[in-house]
Amino acid sequence: MIILGLNAYHGDSAACVVVDGKLVAAAEEERFRRIKHWAGFPTEAIKYCLVEAGINVNDLDYIAINRNPKANLSKKIIFALRKRPSFSLIKQRLENYSNIGNIKKTFCHEFGIDEDSLKAPVVNVEHHLAHMASAFFVSPFDSAAILSIDGFGDFVSTMTGEGKANKINVFEKVYYPHSLGLFYTAITQFLGFKKYGDEYKVMGLAALGKPKYLNIMEKIVKIKQNGMFELNLDYFIHYTEGVSMSWDGIEPKLSDVFSKRLIEALGPPRRYEEPITEHHADIAASLQAMYEKAFFHILNYLYERTKIKNLCLAGGCALNSVANGKIFDNTPFEEVYIQPAANDAGGSLGAAYYLYHQILGKQRNFVMDKAYWGPDFSEAEISEKLKVKSEELNNCKIEKIDNEDELCKKVAKYIADGKVVGWFQGRMEWGPRALGNRSILVDPRRAEMKDILNARIKRREPFRPFAPSILLEAVGEYFEKDYPDPFMIKVYPIKEEKRKIIPAVTHVDGTGRLQAVSKEENPLYWRLIKEFEKLAGVPVVLNTSFNENEPIVCTPDEALDCFLRTKMDVLVLGNFIISKIYR
Known about the structure:
Blueprint: E1 2-7, E2 14-19, E3 22-28, H1 30-33, H2 43-53, E4 62-65, H3 73-83, H4 87-101, H5 103-110, E5 122-124, H6 127-136, E6 143-153, E7 156-164, E8 167-175, H7 180-190, H8 199-205, H9 214-220, E9 221-223, E10 229-231, E11 245-246, E12 253-254, H10 260-266, H11 278-306, E13 310-314, H12 321-324, H13 327-330, E14 335-337, H14 346-359, H15 379-388, E15 396-400, H16 404-416, E16 421-424, E17 438-442, H17 449-458, E18 467-471, H18 475-478, E19 491-493, H19 496-499, E20 511-513, E21 515-517, H20 523-536, E22 540-545, H21 556-565, E23 570-573, E24 576-580
Parallel strand pairs: 1-4, 4-5, 6-13, 13-14, 16-23, 18-21
Antiparallel strand pairs: 1-2, 2-3, 6-7, 7-8, 9-10, 11-12, 15-24, 16-17, 17-22, 18-22, 19-20, 23-24
């Protein structure tokens, strides 16, 4: 049985293919279109998934999408009758529903086939059910408590439940207009970060401040006795005035959602070009503290209801790695699983697996223990790209090293010598994190590397931390928590005595967002870090995404372009090492 899973007409559009219950391919559309968080129909991601699976559109048995306009319909009708939303807001929603309702038509148009000839029916899966399925059905757990939490999808922002074997049972829902995701977005916008997906920047900024304004945040988010929460809507305009959203196939945009009441409480909002002050950092810290208070309230109530020690998380808020790293200290949960594309891209995965297990009743036979589900490129393809760009590579030395041990030793020496290395290997990662296949790597012992990376390549806010990739077996040696995370979605305190050893990956509050690298799941990357350890005595490298204010590179072409236009020193494309010659 072959299922195509989709997230379409929503931020982080994506596609995946599941064959007989096993994931074969998954990718975000942004990697092909080169526009961050691309929000239209994921044509290019679908094409890739079909090619990777060795199938064509006529081989599909089902198409599953993580949106269902009919879900929570009574709630939507009551809202429309009570609030009488603006014509523009109604028009916007109807256009989006129309897009979702016409998925089959769009699919057939994009692939040049007649609708009657496509045998695969389209199955709509409610947004948060897809999120829950994306976590539980690919987790290693036979049973688990499940939480899905984000902005909004199908009129819901939060959903709790329980998974057992191949079924999910839903407990609670938090409906529009109440949302922790929207709360986080509102304060993110207030702090001058207006782009879709900028919340992670504010999470990093929070470490620089103190939660001085938690009392104000507690007036904005009200904790409820049933384990849920509600917003004080006086601080928002999405409920009374509506907000402008653009899901038209370019980078998604969202207009401001906070009201004048928030300005009265916190002072004037920061403009993007303004300096970041201690006041702004304190607001960020207060936001993070309030989010965590509500988050742990939900989780503890969920545990009391299920008494299951395993937890699965999904939704955009599940990428709040700072909060995730505190789950073990603030709840009774002992095991936590978050798949690498916990955001809306992962809804494509969840739609496919919800259909396969919950609707069709198939037994589980797959665990997602790695993130490498995107395109890869052969030695011949890479060699051809190097020939095409030979003129641009005039000032570079190119070596081909077939022995992987020798390759890793040589690259480890470059890193130990302070070089900035682009590392392009194997299949592209699924999700927003570069996890050792499309990464830029440097020496974590050198504190100056943070500034060097920002000046030469990343050109991003200086307060944002860089992440450590660490050998799985060394996690407990360097971090206060030894619970591994292969997907870089948890932040733990770095042991105090180790912070001065790896300053480039130690955030201002002494923490690091780790990626535990296992020999089994990524043997080449593990070997590279091991060789670096032999040279430097440290089983850690600084790992940041291979990009320059763009989506993570997907192809050798994009890797070469990024290498050539930035001040990267070395590029490793498969078994080719390209190093710049400085005269």
